[in-house]
Automatic annotation (TrEMBL):
Residues 1-79 are annotated as: Disordered. Residues 1-12, 51-61, 70-79 have a biased composition (Basic and acidic residues). It comes from Pleurodeles waltl (Iberian ribbed newt). This is Uncharacterized protein.
């Protein structure tokens, strides 16, 4: 049980971290707009990077759900 609680705590910590990085990314994006008003190419690159980050974190959350369900199946087998 303790192992599962730790896993849960770690996953919530990870989601908090991703939220923190997202807000930091948004700040960077604003900074890019401020400094590089003539160069819009830089801005689109930052936006593309943010979209990739979002997609990656969504995939990670799907993976953790998969592993959790697998863990639940394993515990049923033990019982």
């Amino acid at each position: 049980m303790k192992y599962n609680e730790n896993q849960e705590r770690r996953s919530t910590g990870e989601s908090l971290n991703t939220m923190r990085t997202w807000s930091r990314g948004a700040e960077e994006q604003r900074r890019v707009i401020k400094y590089n008003e003539p160069g819009a190419g830089e801005q689109s690159r930052v936006i593309k990077y943010n979209e990739n980050q979002e997609r990656r974190s969504r995939d990670e959350s799907l993976n953790t759900m998969k592993t959790r369900s697998r863990g639940a199946e394993a515990s049923h087998e033990i019982q």
